[in-house]
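To illustrate the input format used throughout this study, we show a single complete record. The first block contains the structure-token representation of the backbone; no residue identities are included at this stage. The design step must infer an amino acid for every position from geometry alone.
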């Protein structure tokens, strides 16, 4: 479709899944010219998999292709890069212009797109739109938990039965055995990559003191576990040593030759902007959606973003119809603000409840480590063997 992007009616900053999701629904509902601005030429988070709650997909337009795209999302973990790719193709097919490499200050957008009446910030947790148009005012920013995550590749086995043993880590008993060995609440996942290799990811729930000592190891600057092991806090060293030493008990293959385990740290935060909608002196509407509006741990950020995107597109449809009819076009988007604040309250409460149970679980782990219950899962001689193997492996690979 040969539309001029400068004649956009709706401009969305941020071409991630939520930005594209909002753009597609706005286009389907209104038929207006929608433009998406994305500062990166390529997607930046290619290795992230998330769970999509079926309830997050309610209320979307009756479009066969959109229904087909979302059909498999709630059945298994979805690669965010694949989600974005499918949405980008759908958006392009609808005539939505995606301008990549576009990195203008949000305050300049009304000059660049003088025809637009609605501007949406879907530009992530560090939203420039939120900073420039909403003064970066926040309702709250609460850390719930702290994570140390390691990721590496192990030797694959051509034996299908052996390969299937990797899935045992998904069971409660196996996860409890891992937790018992490490004496920490952990989240291990193992997946086969497209090239046939097997990638291991271990998320370790750590205390704030440990996090403060390793928080410089970010996704942009990960630590090499084998060469920087001695610089880690003692409690983290023990967990990593026992994890590597327990590969035999957990039916995990040895490290792949040349594999360098990487460690990153991050906090599981809840945060929310104070306001999700505002109008400027010209009566133009500005709204926040996705991580620009609010973020929550435990796989809820994306789900909340999808729900906000659906509601925002509905509000934009009502606002455009009201404007064209000479009626109050602000009320529908104030309705979005009300809905978004409701979602924030609900998600924050849920995050706090989950965090409470994680703390209870860790307390139970601590109690279990000092009682005979631990011997039901791991014998004392097994723990000694695990410790020795872990030390040997780290010495060999360092």
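Output of the design step:
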């Amino acid at each position: 479709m040969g539309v001029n992007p400068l004649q956009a009616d709706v401009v969305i900053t941020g071409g991630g899944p939520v930005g594209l999701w909002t753009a597609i629904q706005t286009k389907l509902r209104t038929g207006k010219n929608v433009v998406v601005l994305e500062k990166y030429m390529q997607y930046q988070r290619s290795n992230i998999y998330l769970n999509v709650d079926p309830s997050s997909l309610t209320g979307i337009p009756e479009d066969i292709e959109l229904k087909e795209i979302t059909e498999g999302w709630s059945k298994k973990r979805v690669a965010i890069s694949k989600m974005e790719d499918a949405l980008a193709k759908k958006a392009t097919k609808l005539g939505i212009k995606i301008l990549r490499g576009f990195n203008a200050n949000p305050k300049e957008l009304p000059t660049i797109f003088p025809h637009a009446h609605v501007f949406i910030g879907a530009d992530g947790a560090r939203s420039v739109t939120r900073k420039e148009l909403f003064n970066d005012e926040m309702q709250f920013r609460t850390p719930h938990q702290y994570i140390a995550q390691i990721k590496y590749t192990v030797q694959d086995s051509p034996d299908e039965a052996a390969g299937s043993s990797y899935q045992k880590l998904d069971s409660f008993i196996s996860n409890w055995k891992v937790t018992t060995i490490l004496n920490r609440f952990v989240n291990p996942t193992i997946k086969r990559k497209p090239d046939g290799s097997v990638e291991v990811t271990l998320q370790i729930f750590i205390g704030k003191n440990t996090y403060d000592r390793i928080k410089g190891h970010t996704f942009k600057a990960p630590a090499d576990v084998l060469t920087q092991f001695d610089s880690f806090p003692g409690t983290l060293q023990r967990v990593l040593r026992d994890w590597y030493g327990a590969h035999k008990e957990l039916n995990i293959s040895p490290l792949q030759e040349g594999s360098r385990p990487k460690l990153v740290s991050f906090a599981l935060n809840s945060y929310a902007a104070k306001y999700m909608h505002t109008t400027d002196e010209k009566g133009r509407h500005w709204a926040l959606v996705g991580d620009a509006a609010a973020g929550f741990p435990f796989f809820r950020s994306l789900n909340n973003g999808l729900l906000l995107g659906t509601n925002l597109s509905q509000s934009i449809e009502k606002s455009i119809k009201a404007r064209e009819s000479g009626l109050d076009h602000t009320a529908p988007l104030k309705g979005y603000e009300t809905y978004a604040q409701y979602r924030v309250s609900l998600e924050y409460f849920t995050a706090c409840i989950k965090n409470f149970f994680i703390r209870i679980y860790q307390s139970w782990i601590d109690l279990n480590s000092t009682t005979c219950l631990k011997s039901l899962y791991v014998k004392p001689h097994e723990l000694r063997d695990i410790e020795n193997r872990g030390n040997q492996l780290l010495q060999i690979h360092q």
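Structural context for interpreting the output: Residues 158-173 have pLDDT under 50 and may be disordered. The chain has 13 helices and 14 strands.
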